[in-house]
Amino acid sequence: MDPIARYLEDHRDQFLEDLKAALRIPSVSTQPEHREDVRRCAEHLAAHLRGLDMTRVEVMPTVGHPVVYAEWTGAPGKPTVLLYGHYDVQPPDPLDLWQTPPFEPTLRDGKLFARGAVDDKGQVYAHLAAIEAHMKVDRKLPVNLKLMIEGEEEIGSHHLGDFIREHRSMLDADVIVVSDTGMPGPDQPALTYALRGLLYAQIEVTGPARDLHSGHFGGAVTNPANALCGIIAGLRDGDGRITVPGFYERVRPITPELREMFRAAPFDEAAFMRESGAPAPFGEKGFSTLERTTARPTLDVNGMWSGYIGQGEKTVLPSFAAAKVSMRLVPDQDPDELAPRFEAYVRKLAPAGVTVKVAGLRGCPPFITDPDHPMLEAARRALARVWPKPAAMIREGGSIPVMTTFQQTHGLPSILMGFGLDDDQVHAPNEKISLTSFYGGMRSAACLYEELAKV
Amino acid sequence: MDPIARYLEDHRDQFLEDLKAALRIPSVSTQPEHREDVRRCAEHLAAHLRGLDMTRVEVMPTVGHPVVYAEWTGAPGKPTVLLYGHYDVQPPDPLDLWQTPPFEPTLRDGKLFARGAVDDKGQVYAHLAAIEAHMKVDRKLPVNLKLMIEGEEEIGSHHLGDFIREHRSMLDADVIVVSDTGMPGPDQPALTYALRGLLYAQIEVTGPARDLHSGHFGGAVTNPANALCGIIAGLRDGDGRITVPGFYERVRPITPELREMFRAAPFDEAAFMRESGAPAPFGEKGFSTLERTTARPTLDVNGMWSGYIGQGEKTVLPSFAAAKVSMRLVPDQDPDELAPRFEAYVRKLAPAGVTVKVAGLRGCPPFITDPDHPMLEAARRALARVWPKPAAMIREGGSIPVMTTFQQTHGLPSILMGFGLDDDQVHAPNEKISLTSFYGGMRSAACLYEELAKV
Q1: How distant is the Cα of A179 from the closest Cα of chain B, in angstroms?
Q2: pLDDT value for B427
Q3: Hey, what's the torsion of the CAs at A147, A153, A159, A163, to 10 degrees?
Q4: Is there a contact between B232 and A226 if contact means CB atoms under 8 Å apart?
Q5: What per-residue confidence (pLDDT) applies to B157?
C-alpha cells in the first residue's frame, strides 16, 4: 500500500472527527437566524485549511455569505486545479422526522447521519483529508491547488457569479474539480459530464378585481384558477412533450451511441422508483426513465395557489391564481432564448377575460463537458485505482449554476467526481454519508491530484 | 294613505333603531369565538318578537346554533304564511377595508352600513316592522304567520333540514315567504322564482410519496399539480361547455319565450361587469350574461393548492395537489345523479402515475317555483301597491339550500321577495342596506300579508 493510502487509512477516526466538528455548525444559509453560524462555519473551515499549510487562506466577503478561499502553489510547471464546494446546508425541517438531531452527527450502521453529511461538507472534507495526507507524507501536493468553498449554494449561488468575475485571475486554473454529485451504487464510481439547466417562472393570472360570489357571477366572468389550469395543461401535449414553439430546436438528439450508453448505464430503475414513492414511472413517450431525467427537458409545476384553501367549502370565484413553473433544460437549449418564447406562449394560451403576467423568469444554462478530455481520462484512472468497477460516465438531472459560470468565464474542462448515493436523503430528514463514500472519496481525491499532475 | 302605511312612515326612526340594535350583535356563525354572540342575537330577536304579541315565541336548539321560532295563529280560515330568514352573518374580514366598524351600524347618504345590514337582518326586520304595524293598528294580522329565523344560513344550513323534518307539522303552511334575495334596481322590485343548485367537490391528486427534487426526478414521475391542471382543464371544452358525460341531459332548454324574458329583463350588464371588476365578460358560447349566470350551469375552481407557495423559488416536485371545485346546477339537474358521473369522469381524466380522490361531494338541487301561481300573483299585487314599476320575475345564480328542503318536505309555492341591491357588498366589507329598500321592504311585507289573505 502506498504511503498516502496508508496515511488515509491510519487517520480515519481523526478525519471522521474533523467532519463531525464541521457538521455540528448549523450553517443554514437561507435562515437569517443562522447568519452567525454560517460565518462561524467559514472561519472553522479556514482554520482547518491553515493547519494544512496552505500558502494562502482567506474568508472573503460577498454581498451575502462569505467564500472560503485557499491556495497552495508550490508545484511550478504542474497543472493548477480549482476545487469548488460549499459549506452551507439546507434547513433541517421537518425536525420531527429525524431519528437523531440534524446537527449532532451520529454513526449508525457505517453511515454518518447529519444535515450536510453528503451535501456537501462530507465531500469537501474528503478532499481536505486527501490534501492533509499529501502534505504530511510528501510535504507537498502533486499539483497546484486552489479551493473556493462557498456559503450560498443552497440558496442559488446568487453572489458567486460576481465573485468569480471579480477574482478572475486569482481563480485561474487548468481544470475544475467538484465533488457535489452522486455515484450509481456503493461500489460504482462515476464522473458526471452533463447537468441540466433551468428556466424558472411564476405565472400570475388575474380575473375579477376582488373575490366574487360564485353563484352571482359564476358563468359571466373568466375564473383565473380555471384559466391557469388551462394554461398549464396547454404547456404539454398528451405524450408529455412540451408545446412551447421551438422548445426542442436546440436539444441534442439521443444518438444510437448515447442510447446504448444509457442502456448500459448502472441505473437501478426499480430502486429509483421505490425511492420516489410514485405509483409508476411516467413521462415523455419514446424515452427511458434515465433519458427522461437527464437528457430530455421537463416542465414541472413547483407550486400553485388560488382562492380558498382552508377547511370546508367556500363558494368563491377567486380574483387571482398563480403557479411556480420550472423547466429543466438540456444541451444546447438556451434559457435566454427560451424565456421570451415561453412568456409569449403562456400569453397565447390565456383565455379572454383575464390578464396574465409571467414574473421572475430566471434561467441557468445546461452544462456539458467533453467526457474524452485528457483531464477526465486522468480522473477515470484515479477512480480505477480505488474502486472495483470502472467509472461510469453519467448525466445528472439537477443543476449546479456555478458550472455554467465557470464555463463562461474560464472555459475549462470540469471533473464532477461525486460520492453521494441515491438513498442519502439529500435536502430531506436523515441525510447521511456512507463511510464507504467518505473514505473512498478521500482516496479518490488523493489519486486524482496525482493523475492530474501527469496530464 | 292607509293607516298601516302611515304607522310605518311615522315609526321609521324607531324601526331603524331596532335594526341597528340587532346589527350591533356580531352573530358570526362560522367563528367559535362568536358562539355566545349568536345565542345572544337569537334571544334578542325572540324578545323583540314577544313584544309584538306573537302567540308563541321560542329559541329552539339544534345541534348547532338555535332557530328562533314564532307564530301568530289568530286568523282562522285565512292562509298560513311561513316566513324564513336568518339572523347569522358572515365574518367581517378583511376588517381594514371597512370605512366604519362592521358592528357599529352607521348611516351615510341614505344607506345603513354594517355586517348583516341586508343579509339578512335588514330584510328580517322589515318584516318585523310590517308585523308591528298590523298588530298596533288592527290588533291582528291579515294571515296566520309562522316565523323560522335560523342561525346557520351562512355556514350551509346543515342542521336545518333535520329541524324542518322533526317539526314538520309545527311548520305546516300554505306558502313560504323569504326575503333574502335582491332586486334589479332601487325602484325595480322583483320576485325570484328560480335559484341554482350546487355540486361541490374537492379533487385530491397524489403522486410521489413525498416532495421530490425536480432535477433528480423531473421527467420520470407524474407531477400531481400538472395532473390536476389537466383534469380541471379537461372538465370544460374550448366553448366553456362542461364535458362531464350527461351533464346537460336534464337542463331545461331556454325556450324562445324565456329568451325574450331574459332579453326584456331589467338587467344592467355594464353595471354588473363594473361590479365584478373583470376585464371582460366571458362564458359559454351562445348565451347572454344573464342566461349564463342564472339558467345555465357552471363549473368554477373555488380554491387550489400544491407544493411550494412561499416567496422565491423552490425546485420541488410536489407530492400532492388539490382543488375545490363547484358546479352551479339549473332545473332539472339532479346533484345525486351527477355526483357519481363527475367522480367517474375526473378519474378518467387523470393520467397514469397518480392516484385521484374526489372528496366531500355534496349537492343541493336547483329550485324553481311556478311564477304564475296565485300566491305569486298576490305578491305581484302587493309590490305593485308600493313601487313605481311592476315586479320583474327573475332567476338568481346563487343557492338557498332550505328552499329545496321545503319543496321536498312541504311542496309549497314559495315567494322570494327580496330587496338587496347589486352594490350592497354582500359577504364583503362595507355591506349596507339602502333605506329605500328597508322602508320599501316594510311596506311590501305589510301589503303582502294583506294580498295573501285574499288568495
Answers
A1: 17
A2: 83
A3: 10
A4: yes
A5: 87
Contact list in B for residue A316 (CB cut-off 8 A) is 302-303
Give chain A's domains with CATH numbers.
3-195+366-453 (3.40.630.10), 197-251+297-364 (3.30.70.360)
- Tell me the pLDDT tens digit for each residue of A318-365: 999 999 999 999 999 999 999 999 999 999 999 999 999 999 898 889
Please give the pLDDT value at position B248: 98
Single out the residue of A338, A326, A335, A339 nearest to residue A408, CA to CA.
A335
The residues, ordered by sequence, that sit 6+ positions from B102 with a Cβ below 8 Å of its Cβ are B26, B92, B95, B114, B115, B429, B431
SS3 B238: coil
Q: Which amino acid is at B142?
A: P
Cα distance between residue B106 and residue B84, in whole Å? 26
Amino acid at A452: L
Strand-pair category, B106-108 with B111-113: antiparallel
Buried b (16+ CB within 10 A) or exposed e, B289-309: bbbbbbbbbbbbbbbbbbbbb
Contact A318, A312 (CB under 8 A): no
pLDDT score of B1 more than 90: no
Measured at the CA of B291, the angle between CA B289 and CA B294, to 5 degrees, comes to 105
Chain B residues whose CB is inside 8 A of the A64 CB are: none
C-alpha span between B195 and A43 (Å, rounded): 71
What per-residue confidence (pLDDT) applies to A362?
A: 87
Q: pTM value?
A: 0.88
pLDDT in tens, A166-182: 999 999 999 999 999 99
A300 part of contact set with chain B, CB < 8 Å = yes
Task: Specify the 3-state DSSP secondary structure of A324.
Answer: strand
pLDDT tens column, B427-442 = 888 999 999 999 999 9
Amino acid at B92: P
Mean pLDDT for all residues in chain B: 95
Q: Which of B155, B95, B148, B87 is nearest to B117 (CA)?
A: B87
Interface of B with A in 250-289 (CB under 8 A): 272-273, 276-284, 289
Distance from CA of B75 to the nearest CA of A (A): 39
Cα B287 to Cα A212, A227, B241, B259: the distances in Å are 21, 20, 11, 9
Return the pLDDT at B78.
97
Collect all residues with Cβ–Cβ distance below 8 Å to B230 and sequence separation of at least 6.
Answer: A229, A232, A233, B349, B351
pLDDT at position B252 is 96
User: By the 8 A CB rule, do A301 and A229 touch?
Assistant: no
Instruction: Read off the pLDDT of residues B78-109 as tens digits, 9 standing for 90 and up.
Output: 999 999 999 999 889 888 889 999 999 999 99
- Which grid cell sits at B108? 351615510
Report, as residue numbers or ranges, the catalytic residues of A. Answer: 88, 153
Within 233-252 of A, beta carbons closer than 8 Å to B belong to 233-234, 236
Quick one: pLDDT at residue A113? 98
Residues in chain A: 455
Distance, in angstroms, between B423 CA and closest chain A CA?
12
Residues of A in contact with B304 (CB under 8 A): 225, 229, 304-307, 309, 321
| Per-residue DSSP letter, A155 | G
Which residue type sits at B203? I
Q: CA of B455, closest CA in chain A: separation in Å? A: 33
Q: In 3D, which of B72, B279, B423 has the Cα closest to residue A353?
A: B279
Contact yes or no for A302 and B212 at CB 8 A: no
Report the candidate in A95, A96, A74, A66 with the shortest Cα–Cα distance to residue A163. Answer: A66
Mean pLDDT of the residues in chain A: 95
Q: Which of A214, A230, A310 minimises the CB distance to B233?
A: A230
pLDDT tens, A16-64? 999 999 999 999 998 899 999 999 999 999 999 999 999 999 999 999 9
